[in-house]
Amino acid sequence: MARRSPHPPAVKRKLHHSPVLALLILLLPSLLVVIVCHRQQISYLLRPIWDTPPRPFIRLPHYYAQDLPMDHLCRLHGWSILTAPRRVFDAILFSNELDILEIRYRELAPYVHKFVILESNITFTGIAKPLYFVENYGRFELLSSKIVHGIFTGQADRTPGRDPFQLEFKQRVALNSLLRGSGIAPGDVVIMSDADEIPSTDTIKLVQWCDGVPPVMHLELRHYMYSFEFPVDYSSWRATAHMFHPGTRYRHSRQTDLILADAGWHCSFCFRTMEEFVFKMTAYSHADRVRRSSFLDHSRIQKIICEGRDLFDMLPEEYSFQELIKKMGPIPRSASAVHLPSYLLENADKFRFLLPGGCSRSKIDA
Fold it and tell me: Which sequence ranges are marked TM in the entry (predicted)?
């Protein structure tokens, strides 16, 4: 009896799979294009798989109620009260956040000995920029005796692939020199943060008056986006309070496991005009998120900031799928203007765009 050849079935199997292989070959270029064009979104989507979260902070409880005496507040934290307050220095890098800077300075002025501020004639991305603080000094003239201002001078450079974090690092190093020339001395307190990371006055009074405060602690700030109408979470941690000593250096990164709970506000992209939004989007260290010129369209930006959506169409930066899914979509709108900077509410007409119901922005105005 003749044997049946094994080859025909193999040929059939090959013929059976060839359409699938052909389809894969056809789809591969499209898949590569999708990966290249949306690599940031894909990276963020898969972050819970490829990245591990940093170790958790040790959160220090923060006690405060209006009219409570400072010795009682210090004792609530497990500290004692000093016989005289420490001097407080506030050290920041400044770009173009004029309205937020005015709120910060006028809110903290009664408690801060010196405001140390460094600005540059170039952005982190190498774009030439005006010296906005110098040009608008009149807004801060009443505080001139408290202000120590410095300028970082650089050359505009738009070389493709240039790392913006290198220039940011150089400016933060320059702020060290400015701080040391401000009259600060061992035992003084220095707040290190960005201009839009504002510690509350009760936080400042704690580090000013209480003995036993940790030598370095991060400040947990409530994070807002576009205005105080869109509270995101309490994820802002980079601001720090230091007991100054000769080895103290200005940094904007993790320096300790300790963090003081509910210590102020971080208002990101809280600008008055469309032009300020566009400038920040193209100037800061994450300017690579502007993937298309249409991202800078004024009508698009206006729609996004009134809906609480992401300016860069990015997914949330989370380390678990649960948190990522929870934060997808627009930021829930808040109608509360409770526990905000006093100066903001005292001047609500001037800063209406930062309050609930004020999302409509303008072009450059006087």
Answer: none
Please write the tens of the pLDDT for every residue from 199-210.
Answer: 999 999 999 999
Residue 62 near residue 263, CB atoms below 8 Å: yes
H/E/C letters for each residue in 280-321?
HHHHCCCHHHCCCHHHHCHHHHHHHHHHCCCCCCCCCCCCCH
Please state which of the ranges 152-156, 202-206, 309-313, 314-318 shows the lowest mean pLDDT: 314-318
- Element (DSSP H or E) covering residue 109: none
φ, ψ (nearest 5 deg) of residue 220: -80, 120
- Helices 98-108 and 201-209, interaxial angle, to 10°? 40
**Token digits of residue 153:** 């001078």
Beta strands in 228-332 (DSSP E): 231-236, 240-243, 258-268
Cα 226 from Cα 120, distance rounded (Å): 24
Euclidean distance between CA atoms 281 and 1, whole angstroms: 80
Give the predicted TM-score (pTM) of the model.
0.85
Non-local (6+) Cβ contacts of 91 within 8 A are 116, 117, 175, 178, 179, 190, 191, 192, 193, 250
For 232-276, the pLDDT digits (tens) are: 999 999 999 999 999 999 999 999 999 999 999 999 999 999 999
Task: Specify the residue for token string 């963090």.
Answer: 259
Place of tokens 């963020």: 44
CA angle 178, 172, 285 (to 5 degrees): 145
